[in-house]
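Same chain as my last thread, 112 residues:
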Amino acid sequence: MLTSSAKAKGRKACQQVKELLYKYAPDLRQGDIDITPSGVTGVDLKLSPAAKELYPFAIEVKNQESLNVWAAYEQAIKHAAGSSDMPILFFRRNKSELMACLKADDFIKLIR
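reply #2:
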């Protein structure tokens, strides 16, 4: 796969996560969630302070047919280092639903 195609595929997944986050937070304004340009180190979605209150995450997004979930989640952990953000990995592959991966402890904190 060409690098440009892979980056476009990644942007498409980021857009899908962004739309999902807005869907469940109708009070957020446009611009509260931004996709980080490819090639820039750090989280894949930048959240405004208002968005951070609802979504306290360091977000990593992958759109790959073959994914090492452990390595991808480790990347989210590195992005969350030094902050109170919970690392979360959103991932998908062709013809599959978007999935999310986070520590069980963080999941329980969220639902309580």
